[in-house]
Amino acid sequence: MRNVGTVVRGIRTPIIKENDDLASIVVDSLMKAQESEGFNFRDKDVVAITEAVVGISEGNYVSVDDIATDIKNKFPSGNIGVVYPILSRNRFSMILKGIARGMNKITMLLSFPRDEVGNGILDEDLLDKSEFNLSSVISEEDYKKNFGSWIHPFTGINMVDFYRDLVKSENCEIEFVFANDPKAILNYTKDVLTCDIHTRFRTKKMIEEAGAEIIYGLYEVMTAPVGNSGFNPTYGLLGSNKSTEERLKLFPKTGDKLVETVQSKLKELTGKTIEVMVYGDGAFKDPVGTIWELADPVVSPAYTSGLVGTPNEIKLKYVSDNKFANLKGDELKEAIKNEIRQKDADLKGNMLSQGTTPRRLTDLIGSLCDLTSGSGDKGTPVVFVQGYFDNLAND
């Protein structure tokens, strides 16, 4: 009988640098960890690699000048509307720097009271007491007068002031507008760059159908190289992170090849079929700060075939409290094991069982891995998960 369920280990690796053989580093680090820790590899184990080191090893970087060049080519008028960027120094400031370097004027449309991932832009209590509501269009002047003193409780920064100063440092004019209807940008300019992440296709379509003349999404910027720059053909600048004051690391583009290579190498060494994925931000929300962690376009941009789909699980507490309310101890455990086996049979017959909230395996496992590795100095860009697919019937 197994007394332990899912086990998650952060795997230490050497510091990953550009052009490193990441697949070999991942495999070697796992084998060293196995030797020192004494665990055994099993079929359906999961190896997860953070997207940050994938992008680094690819050398997939762009400069602020590269962004400025691409933006100039796409918006020759020099006057651009920037719609719904997230309020992030790490995620958007260098992108904005590139846009400003290539343009003469930016009209920035911000949603309120928060951006799409939960970063605040004003005091919600003051909003409730003001003449404005969520349907209002608030000018920069009215924002300054009513809400301009607000600063983020974690960073101590007002991002409107931060973005304004950054754009002006590039000799570009900027005007802010606050509205929850993205079509409001068309009152200021017909040339629009949409910058939201998870609603990007809908937002772009709304503005385009309302009369935009030139419109791109941030996912369409840097989809091809500018000179010798990096690029991402699928996500463009979405998922990028600040590297230096003049350079960004893009979301990885070779993850599919990487996960297959790592899986193949591990099969040769262990004889086991181990699933492999690349993960970025986890898909979870901070209940206190109300920040939704997922600033990447997806949790996992690449994964092996065994991670396709959603979990097939029963709601253990539901069947225990309802169907088997009168059972206890070993009798209850055996009844639940039989329920799980029946669930597996139902799945083969395409029948639905009483299950948990449907979420993709890669979103769940990627979130687990993101929490394990963190974003600081743990030094574990690889996470090894065992027993994730086990259940009581596997005892």
**Tally of separate domains:** 2
Given the C-alpha coordinates, what overall shape results? globular
CATH topology of the largest domain: Rossmann fold
- Total beta-strand segments: 14
CATH class of the largest domain: Alpha Beta
Beta-sheet strand percentage? Answer: 5-15%
Q: Radius of gyration, Cα only, in angstroms? A: 24 Å
Unreliable stretches, pLDDT < 50, 5 or more residues?
Answer: 347-355
What CATH architecture of the largest domain would you give? 3-Layer(aba) Sandwich
Number of helical regions: 12
The main pleated sheet reads as: 6 strands, mixed
Rounded to the nearest angstrom, the distance between the terminal CA atoms is 5 Å
Summing up helix and strand content along with how strands pair, one would put the structural category as alpha/beta
**SSE sequence, one letter per element:** EHEHEHEHEHEHHEEHEEEHEEHHHE
Instruction: Give the strand line-up of the largest sheet.
Output: 6-7-5-4-8-9
| Portion in helices | 25-40%
**What is the mean predicted local confidence, pLDDT?**
88
Task: Characterise this structure.
There is one protein chain. The protein has helices at 22-37, 51-58, 64-74, 93-102, 124-129, 140-147, 159-168, 200-209, 255-270, 316-321, 329-348, 361-373, and strands spanning 7-11, 46-50, 61-63, 79-83, 105-110, 138-139, 173-178, 191-194, 214-217, 241-244, 247-249, 275-279, 302-303, 382-386. With 395 residues, it is an alpha/beta fold. A hairpin with a 2-residue loop joins strand 10 and strand 11 (247-249). The longest helix has 20 residues, at 329-348. The chain is globular. Residues 347-355 have low confidence and may be disordered.
